[in-house]
Design a protein that fits this description.
By secondary structure, the protein is an alpha+beta fold. The chain has two domains: about 20-145, no CATH class; about 180-195 and about 220-338, no CATH class. It has helices at about 20-45, 50-65, 70-90, 95-115, 125-145, 160-165, and strands at about 235-240, 240-245, 250-255, 260-265, 285, 300, 305, 325, 335. It has a four-stranded antiparallel beta sheet, with no helix packed on it. Strands 6-7-8 form a three-stranded antiparallel beta sheet, with no helix packed on it. α2 packs antiparallel against α3 (about 70-90). The radius of gyration is 33 Å and the shape is elongated. About 30% of the residues are buried.
Length: about 350
């Protein structure tokens, strides 16, 4: 009797793991471990549960991909869909909140889709490539939205008047200030006026002559702290004077035409009080009425307050030496008493 022709056929050997699948699997394992560990800590602190679940999912997906199994790609797809759902639930339609939550995982999704055709029980190449192309187009479209304004607050028709924009009309207690209606040649506030227009009506500098401008004068404050410091002041120009502050909040008045120093007020900031970069970002100007009801103050980085005067010939501070210790003070806009 002849041998049976129905001999068993040996199963086809499993395809070898693609080198890029190995790299992707290790990347997902590392990323998943970090997310799971950090997410567990965050959950203990009362934070979001998502990072633990996503971390475990990525970790398992990477382990399955290392074994070249199709289920690794399928598990990653579940993590991706869950991330999209979680992002919408937590962030709504806010574009910039979506970017950090979906940017990296979307890029990984393109790679997973491309390589899914190389796994055991592979996804058909046509489907794998179409899915990867769709995800890539979605990624590019989302990236291009970064150049579109988001969350813009539209201004009401018409440009605001300075006093209205300042939110305070002049009264007996709060008289008209230089920054309410600046003179054409002045810059009495950081944004030029209390309306923050940042626009000067002066016509001495035009598009035709700006390239030929030359420095009129140079002034050096001489205030150089031993540690880090920054020159961030926005000078104010009122009348024929220019007011600025140095790194350690020394207030300086200059002749606007020549750059000659008229006076300097040094609040004696202690080096020990400077915990970061020493910088004064600007000064504020206030014209005191005959009977002032407000004491303008200089707040320095050491949180000492003092009252200088912007007028030459007057004592600094005007009512004698005076300094107050406060718990919180800002060095952004010291006051000068006019």
């Amino acid at each position: 009797m002849s041998a049976s022709s129905d001999s068993e056929v040996a199963p086809a050997p499993a395809p070898a793991r693609h080198p890029l699948v190995s790299v992707l699997a290790l990347l997902l394992i590392a990323l998943g471990a970090v997310l799971a560990a950090g997410g567990g800590w965050l959950l203990q602190l009362g934070g979001s549960w998502y990072y633990v679940l996503a971390g475990v999912g990525l970790l398992a997906s990477g382990a399955l991909l290392w074994r070249n199994l199709r289920s690794g790609a399928q598990l990653f797809a579940l993590v991706y869909i869950g991330t999209v759902a979680w992002t919408w639930w937590e962030s709504g339609g806010s574009y910039w909140r979506w970017v950090p939550r979906l940017g990296l995982v979307s890029a990984l999704a393109v790679l997973v889709a491309l390589l899914s055709s190389t796994l055991q029980r592979p996804v058909p190449k046509r489907i794998a490539r179409s899915t990867a192309a769709a995800l890539a187009l979605l990624f590019v479209a989302a990236f291009s939205l970064a150049f579109v304004p988001h969350g813009v607050t539209r201004a009401r028709p018409g440009f605001p008047q300075p006093l209205v924009a300042a939110g305070l009309a002049p009264t007996e207690e709060a008289p008209l200030q230089a920054a309410d209606r600046p003179a054409d040649g002045d810059w009495p506030a950081w944004g030029r006026s209390n309306a923050g227009t940042r626009f000067s009506p002066s016509r001495g500098i035009t598009a035709d002559n700006v390239a030929t401008l030359q420095p009129a004068w140079v002034f050096r404050t001489g205030d150089l702290p031993r540690r880090r410091w920054g020159a961030q002041t926005t000078p104010l120009k009122i009348g024929d004077s220019l007011y600025l502050c140095s790194a350690r909040n020394q207030l300086i008045a200059l002749d606007a035409a020549t750059g000659t120093a008229r006076w300097r007020f040094d609040p004696k900031v202690r080096e020990a009080a400077i915990t970061h970069t020493a910088a004064c970002r600007g000064v504020a100007y206030y014209e005191t009425p005959d009977e002032p009801s407000l004491d303008p103050l200089l707040a320095d980085v050491a949180a000492d307050l003092a009252l200088p005067s912007a007028l030459p010939g007057l004592p600094l501070p005007r009512r004698g030496p005076r300094a107050l210790r406060v718990r919180h003070a800002s060095s952004k806009a010291p006051w000068m008493d006019g």
